[in-house]
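Weekly puzzle thread! Below is a chain. First person to post its structure in token form gets bragging rights.
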Amino acid sequence: MTPAARVAAAIEVLDEIFDGATPEKALTGWGRSHRFAGSKDRAAIRDHVFQALRCKTSYGWIGGAASGRGVMLGAMRVAGQVNEMFSGVGHAPNEVEAGEEARSISDAPRWIQCDMPEWMLTHFDAALGAQTDKILETLKSRAGVFLRVNAARSTTAEVIALLADENIVTVPVEGMNYALQVVENERRIALSRPYADGLIELQDTSSQHAILALNLTKSQRVLDLCAGGGGKALAMAAQGGEVTAHDIDPNRMVDIAPRADRAGVKINTAQTSELAKLQPFDVVFVDAPCSGSGTWRRNPAAKWELTEDRLKELTTIQDKVLLQGAQRVRTGGTLVYATCSVFDVENGERVQSFMKSACGFSLLSQTSTAPHLLGDGFYFAEFTKDA
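Winning reply:
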């Protein structure tokens, strides 16, 4: 496919997404109906689509319409490639027509310039203050790819060398002993030997920071209450914790056992009905369901799907799981509440609510990290259960 044909394909996929399809469904459907497209074509189209979703309103403003064509026209105007991509030649999109004149982004409302639903700006401003617009600019770019070296099986230097043998270039993340950033051939990670051998896992640096801050020891029993696919459980197990994973939806945990086997660690799983029968834990980690506002570079469609009602519903869930986690902490033990959101309504306000309703816990620390070049937005609070 030519570069212009890839833009045309992205327009087609975006129109399906704007009509209600998820990005994955729209991209998969396009791939199945265009089997002639090679892997490089599909990757390029995917990149176009996700970047367009990150910058949907600003590109649409510059392109003159909120349609797939309007958004991609705006994207190509920003890139300075309109004439070569919108030529109407072969499989390229048709030439720019009357009524599709460019508009200056400086004339757009703030929410359009920031590429965020208007109602969300209040939440971002409350959390980020004067840095809001600068940080929202960060969310318009693609997130980096970061790895956690499995300390139970390898060293950072060894992994760097092994990946280099497969033409995957990585560099250490400053201040983190087991974190690497992939700077070349990131799409080969899942096919690499170090990945297959359990020497590395994909994990953002902010998430790694939260696990390292726990300073786990081999004698500690840990409950990962909202484990999902088990990324944090694996990191805690690599530190030597005796980890039990739980999720309200057991289907989300199906990959934990094979991932643990590959990593050479043991992770127990527990159903909701089994939790009350287990002895209280030294550490309970509550990675609560949230808006994911700190990770929208990776999942940009989520910011357009989130509603005020859903955000309110999430805060109710967060209160519930935090109280549930508190019930499983032993006296003198640690309770951690974490989200990948920057919204205070999901973070500090939830901690305040918990402290008013839960007796016997003291707040030790709170850490809030905004999205940045070397990591996602993340929040975690640490409590201790008083004697």
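Puzzle host: Confirmed. Bonus trivia for everyone else. The first helix runs from residue 3 to 18.
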